[in-house]
Amino acid sequence: MDVVVENLPLYLEGFSVTLLLLAVGGIGALVLGTVIAAMRISPIATLRVVATVYTEIIRNTPLTLVVIFCAIILPILGSELPYLIAGMIALAVYTSPFIAEALRSGINGVPIGQAEAARSLGLGFSQTVSLIVLPQAFRMTIPPLINVLIALTKNTSVVGGVGFVSELFGVGRTLANAHGDAVIAVLVGVAFFYLLVTVPLGFLATRLERKWVVQR
Amino acid sequence: MSGAVVLFDAPGPKARRLSRIFSVVTAIVVVAGLGWVFATLNAPRESGGVTLPGMFDPTRWDIVTDPEMWGFIFTVGVWGTLRAAIVAAVLAIALGVVLSLLRSSPIAWIRIPTAVVIEFFRGMPVLLMMLFILLVAGTGQYWAVVSALAVYNGALIGEALRAGLVALPRGQREAALSLGMRPLQSKMLVEFPQAFRQMLPIIVAQLVVLLKDTSLAYIVGYPELLRVTLNNLGSYYGNRYLFTLWCIAFVLYLAMNLTLSWFARWLAKRTDRRYHPAKGGPAPEDPSQALLVADANAAAIEDRSPR
To answer: What pLDDT, in 10s, does the model give residues B201-225?
Structure first.
């Protein structure tokens, strides 16, 4: 345990990089994912096709491959992005289809009778969407979105693993190499910080989801 | 809300023509964008006084005619990936079955620690587990990869099966007990088979995730598809082929994962028709979302009827 206490500043530094990756990657993915979701329900056929193909491809590509593309292949193609930024881009791109699906499933979760009732009361398109559908869809998308963020938290480790960003996993690997006699303590320390984010979020997601389940 | 038609009036001829025009314009823009990317990548570049050929230049792609390279990729790379994925999948399902039974045990001393263990493994990055097993257990890369994948996915499958067990109608167990079965017999012979079949789509979708996650083995140094193409072949043929090799790995991964995803989707549709003819069913492609719904359902049922 001494190793963890001695290197606590290093851990915290790694943890803050992980949180930074989580925040920027998450916001990027949220923006991209919203665009993809909007494209998927748009009346323009080409946009729908493009969004579907994008979703299918990214979803079936391993994250490692995406991160390697951003960290190793992009510099060959002439980009001069720092690794941290490349990692953020990789995370945002990889996570965006999952966000899009979470949003779509939330909107699909609103019973069709709600929109029908609104329309039969004489509400127009924008009124139906903004007053009836979106408020209900929004609540239902929160748990799936939290779920995506949990996955993203775990995925930040890949950025540290492939590249040269010393976030939690990177710090753990360096410390484990430096302290060969205390590998267990070092890595359990790393695990603790990940669990600090993922477990509370997991409980929150299940709790909120359970509320909606009961209401349905 | 699957029929978005409800939201607005059916489009008239003018609106339909407008959307068709937009459609064509978007298609042109997309094709032009792809063409631009292709052209940019293909343009020769100056680097330190040397002119490098474009990314799609034949000199960068001549290795694809080398049968030895393909042999190496398939016998070492693809086989390495599949070997790890298959063994890990079998172990994960076995572990999931055991965990789900322990997790739904009537004895609190078994149930609660199992729940804690499952939560612990669900919340950890697989990569960290791989590194842990590699460094602490000293098993070698193959078993580090396989056991980390098995433990992580086993915990998720166990949780899914547990939710499936809870969601079964109470009458199943009551009927089994009233026929004179012991609680364990009822669980193994009556409840578990039904839960397993209901949760099969989630399990298969989770196996797609497992297959994708084998690529993490690249980081701990197990020779699977990614490491074989990028590192081994990359250093054999030279760095200028890296882009080509990445593309090859990309296409191969896509082929493997898409096949398994389509199978999962087909299976989900089939199971859905049989078991939930009325309900829409959760989106099977993202098992973590389906698991979230199953978990919440189980929690709601448990609240209503304390054991």
So the answer is: 889 889 989 999 999 999 998 888 9
